[in-house]
Amino acid sequence: SSELTQDPAVSVALGQTVTITCQGDSLRSYYANWFQQRPGQAPVLVMFAKNNRPSGIPDRFSGSSSGNTASLTVTGAQAEDEADYYCNSRDSSGDHVVFGGGTKLSVL
Amino acid sequence: EVQLVESGGALVQPGGSLRLSCAASGFTFRSHWMHWVRQAPGKGLVWVARINSDGTTTKYADSVQGRFTVSRDNAKNTLYLQMTSLRSEDTAVYYCTRDSMTTVPTDYWGQGTLVSVSS
Fold this sequence. Notes:
The complex is a heterodimer.
Chain A: E1 5-6, E2 9-12, E3 18-23, E4 33-37, E5 44-47, E6 61-66, E7 69-74, E8 83-90, E9 97-99, E10 103-107
Parallel strand pairs in A: 2-10
Antiparallel strand pairs in A: 1-3, 3-7, 4-5, 4-8, 6-7, 8-9, 8-10
Chain B: E1 3-7, E2 11-12, E3 18-25, E4 34-39, E5 45-51, E6 58-60, E7 68-73, E8 78-83, E9 92-98, E10 108-109, E11 113-117
Parallel strand pairs in B: 2-11
Antiparallel strand pairs in B: 1-3, 3-8, 4-5, 4-9, 5-6, 7-8, 9-10, 9-11
């Protein structure tokens, strides 16, 4: 079982705002990172260290965190944002890596 | 440009062995920890193993401890995963990932290589 908890699925109307959350004890010590995975493709980092976007990631993606919960928000969701989203962090020992179970985002 | 290219995936019988490779380029390989992550068909991402920069320290998920061995050749910029005593539940796409050495343990990913364990 995942040591980070995510809702299995969320949906959003085209152009609206959606937030995906990730909970776990490791997030009290380490930042959550967020990955987008489209079908048949490798995961891509979309957010790191609370609210930092890698080059090339649209600014409609933003991140936040508080306590043991991290969030990824998509403001003005587009059809191409439909994908699976995973969070991860180092575990509490710093030796391993933990992933959330993933959230399937549907853009309606 | 950071590139990670995995190879070695195959169909193997239960109890068999396989070695995966990951060729790295576009960054100073010897300066980064590296990880293997896998994804079973239709399932989520699961961390498998990591190795430190000079290969002296390795860590494993409980599910593969004692069966899998991660190693690296910094002269060849290549990461390896030796898998033995393979089980059907090891069937997955295996991804090689780079540790940013700051906040992100898996900032760059390869395209993955498929390992199928079946008789």
